[in-house]
Amino acid sequence: MSSKSKSYRMFKVLSMAFVFFIQIYWYKIRRKPEADWEKLWEKIGKRFRKTLFELEGLLIKIGQLLSIRADLLPDGFIRQIQDLTDKVPPSEWEEIERTLETEWGGPIDNYLLSIDKKAIASASIGEVYKGVLKDGNSVAIKVQRPQIQSIIQTDFRSLRIIIWFVQHFVPVPKGFINFEVLYKELKEVIERELDFSKEKSTLLFFKERFKEEEVVKIPDVYFELCTPRVLVMEWVNGIKLTDRDCVNELDISHRELAQRLIEVFLPQWLEPGIFHADPHSGNVLVSKEGKIILLDFGMAGEITKKDASYFQGLIESLLSKNYTKAVEYFTKLGFLLPEADPGTMERLLAELMSFQPARLKEMDLISLKLEMNDMIQALPIQVPTRFVFLGRSFMTTEGMIRLLITEDEDIIELVKPVFADWLKKQGNNRWSFIWYWLQSQPIFKTIYSFTEFLKFPQKLEHIKETEQRRQFQFTLYENRKKQLHQIALLGLFGIGAGIYTSHQLILQLSAGVGVVSGVGYVITSYKLKKWMKYMHEKRRG
């Protein structure tokens, strides 16, 4: 891995961040229009991407994790890093051999009949090699990169400095981006991936979960050769879903293969437990028999029983159009910060759920997206990392399914039978959920959706006008507070001058001005504080 010098890495990262801070401040001071801000964030994203590939290591992993935080970061920045692939040049074989010998406590020939010295996969934290055990079984050997621990400590130290500086000096909406939480989540995710023992535990969880499923294949683990830095698994041959020629030669149809993918991932999204958070085409293969092969469990998320219960309640609330209840569940799941205005959230959900996706062709999608982005960014929302991973898992799986079906096929039609089978397995307590689901189907909501769709532009404009009035009122209070503060300071100065000159008239007038302005300042501050809950930091600046 290049650029391992601690001082060089810190210099490159901190200097890059410092340049970004200066650019953001400069645009803020000059009150640049939205279009210029978009270009700036694209420019920042390009430089960030270039630096990631130059330094490699942990920074690429951080870039990958940031690329799925579209709820926190500007679109222009996200676009530049959203296709980051965690592929870096492999380490020297001598370094890998030393790692294996240290972890296994002896020469690798004591354990392996042979091993390919060329890595078959190489990422920022680990590399994978193909080997053959003494008993003739082929294995995949995942080895942690040499010196990665030292590199990660350096990069986290740099990140810690940057976050401290952002919190104290950078004009970003800190009230609704909790950088401490974001840093902690990044650290937890990466430290989890660093410990291959945890990945082994996740793999074993999936083997237990799918032990009765004939359509799923999870590699076996060779416990005696596994350590926190080495993971040895059964070698499994499979076909990538992107290899259309090989997929076409399978006995199973594309449609059935797509439904098997849904069968594998749907329970992960809806039931308590661990889910695969990185199911791209390199980690999800298909065997010649049509079995779904799951690999690489380093990036995983977890849904608790409470999360699953709240999530089910959220779906029921949305499908039954009970948006008050839906907002409550959003809060319980951690999506909404305490400053969020429930009324505004209810109206926003109503607009989002009130029109048919099929009618989007009739709308100006670009204008709609811009308006909805502005509204969402004006609300105190921060998606918990576990649900960002869930969204990543869902969207990546959807992408694989679309590779298998034709353009005119509807994914919903593929999901329905799988979803119905899943519901049957859950017991009678799920019948209410089934009813809500049936209510959500087009046959039950055609009239409602059509009338609500026609009202959508007016409703959206009404919410925008409400937000604009709040912005105007907030600005009035803020300006009045500043003026009263300045008058109060002038009164204090006058009192000092009156005492110094022993001039009673100046003293009395100054005291009167100070008291009146002070009282006005307190009253205005109280009113301003009440309005604060409606205002996003982005709108305050």
UniProtKB/TrEMBL annotation:
Reading the lineage from the top rank, the first entry is Bacteria
Q: Which family does it belong to?
A: Belongs to the protein kinase superfamily. ADCK protein kinase family.
Keyword terms: Kinase, Membrane, Transferase, Transmembrane, Transmembrane helix
User: Which Pfam families does UniProt cross-reference here?
Assistant: ABC1 (PF03109)
Q: Which InterPro entries match?
A: ABC1_dom (IPR004147), Kinase-like_dom_sf (IPR011009), Prot_kinase_dom (IPR000719), UbiB_kinase (IPR050154)
- Positions of transmembrane segments: 6-27, 484-500, 506-526
| Species per Swiss-Prot/TrEMBL record | Exobacillus caeni
Keyword Transmembrane: yes or no? yes
Q: Cross-referenced PROSITE patterns, in alphabetical order?
A: PROTEIN_KINASE_DOM
MF annotations from Gene Ontology: ATP binding; protein kinase activity
Protein name, UniProt field: AarF/ABC1/UbiB kinase family protein
In the UniProt record, the signal sequence range is none
Q: Matching Gene3D superfamilies, A to Z?
A: Transferase(Phosphotransferase) domain 1 (1.10.510.10)
Q: What CDD domains does its record include?
A: ABC1_ADCK3-like
Give the Protein kinase domain ranges: 114-444
